[in-house]
Structure formats: structure tokens, C-alpha cells
């Protein structure tokens, strides 16, 4: 079985949002068109408490995009975004969330960030997605969404580590591209065994 993993297509990651990915909303028609081809659709949703420790506002003298050391390693400090219960945390209204079989909320623990759909940033605290996909009989995962160089990358590479065949749809994701992070992300994904495809190829793959 094939699953489509739709990563963080939320208002705060789209133009006008608190942590906008350039052209983040441009991928939504492509993502919606892919959904009907897949046996399962899973959406992830950043869901941060107001005091989340990945927010620069929680660290005196720090600015967004600074880095700090956390117990689990280096952490980029972000503008406050996707705060629980706010409009910014909502899925973009154009996204067809009715097609989602499962929504994974991540980043709700204030002391640790969570880029991946599979694990929080300590690499050990699981979201439960692996078990769900195994129970559904999924062996192939196609990843789309935001942002390519953070949550998409981490989700895709963790998916490979969890034993899935993983594809990322290049024209159904966009990146932040912070200090060359986008090129590095594509290199890291392909190096981990992720296959990069077009949406046309993804439609064929799902069938």
C-alpha cells in the first residue's frame, strides 16, 4: 500500500504567516490532486504551546534564526508560529483535509521541537506514525508539504530509517532556504535513499 504524507501545510507556513515559506501555498493544488490516488493520506500539523522552547521569544537576547544548544542538540530558534488554537496553526483553507485518514500533531511538548512526522528532535520520542502505517499495510511513502529543508527532509529520512520506500515530490514542496539549507536538504535526502520525483511520476507510482 502507498501513503501520501502531507507535511505542515498550515497558515503560518504560507505567505502572510509568521514563518512563511516562499510560495508555500502554491503547492496546494498539486497536493490536493495527488490525494485521491493514494490508499492512505496522513497530514501533520505543528501544534506548539505559547512557551515552546524553539521560539526565540523564550530566550533572552536571542533573535529568530539564532541557534542554541538543547539537551538533544542544536536548535534553530524560530519566530512564534503554529501556536495551539490560533489561526496560524490551522491548515490552509485550500487544503483538502477531508481526505486525511490521520492527523499527527507534533511539537506540543514545550521542551522539545519536532520536525519529523516520526520522531521528535531527540530522535527517540515517537509520534506513533510508524505503527499506524504498519497496521495499514503501508510500505511506500510519498512526502509533500512544508518545508522541504526542515520538516519534509526529517520526515523523509526518518521514513527510510523506519523501513519504508520513500519518495519526495519536488514540485509539491517548497523550502525556507536558510543559508543554503535547501540544497543541503536535497543532498541529504538522496544520500539517505529518498527518491525525488515529479507529481506526474507520483500519480503513476500510486496506481
From TrEMBL:
Domain Isochorismatase-like: 3-198
One term of GO molecular function: nicotinamidase activity
InterPro entries membership: Isochorismatase-like_dom, Isochorismatase-like_sf, Isochorismatase_Nicotinamidase
Listed EC numbers: 3.5.1.19
Keywords, ordered alphabetically: Hydrolase, Metal-binding, Pyridine nucleotide biosynthesis
Keyword Metal-binding recorded: yes
A matching Pfam family: Isochorismatase
GO BP term, example: pyridine nucleotide biosynthetic process
Involved pathway(s): Cofactor biosynthesis; nicotinate biosynthesis; nicotinate from nicotinamide: step 1/1
Enzyme class: hydrolase
Family as reported in the entry's similarity comment: Belongs to the isochorismatase family.
Protein's name in the database: Nicotinamidase
Organism field: Longimonas halophila
Amino acid at each position: 500500500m502507498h501513503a501520501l504524507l502531507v507535511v505542515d501545510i498550515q497558515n503560518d507556513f504560507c505567505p502572510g504567516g509568521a514563518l512563511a515559506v516562499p510560495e508555500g501555498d502554491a503547492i496546494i493544488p498539486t497536493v490536493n490532486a495527488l490525494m485521491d490516488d493514494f490508499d492512505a493520506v496522513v497530514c501533520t500539523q505543528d501544534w506548539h504551546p505559547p512557551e515552546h522552547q524553539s521560539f526565540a521569544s523564550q530566550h533572552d537576547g536571542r533573535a529568530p534564526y539564532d541557534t542554541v544548544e538543547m539537551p538533544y542538540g542544536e536548535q534553530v530558534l524560530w519566530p512564534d508560529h503554529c501556536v495551539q488554537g490560533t489561526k496560524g496553526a490551522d491548515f490552509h483553507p485550500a487544503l483538502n483535509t477531508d481526505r486525511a485518514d490521520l492527523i499527527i500533531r507534533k511539537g506540543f511538548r514545550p521542551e522539545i521541537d519536532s520536525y519529523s512526522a516520526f520522531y521528535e528532535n531527540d530522535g527517540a520520542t515517537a509520534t506513533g506514525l510508524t505503527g499506524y502505517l504498519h497496521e495499514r499495510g503501508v510500505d511506500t511513502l510519498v512526502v509533500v508539504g512544508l518545508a522541504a529543508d526542515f520538516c519534509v527532509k526529517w520526515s523523509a529520512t526518518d521514513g527510510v530509517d523506519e523501513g519504508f520506500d520513500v519518495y519526495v515530490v519536488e514540485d509539491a514542496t517548497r523550502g525556507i532556504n536558510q543559508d543554503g539549507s535547501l540544497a543541503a536538504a536535497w543532498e541529504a535526502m538522496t544520500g539517505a535513499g529518498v527518491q525525488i520525483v515529479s507529481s506526474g511520476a507520483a500519480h503513476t507510482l500510486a496506481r
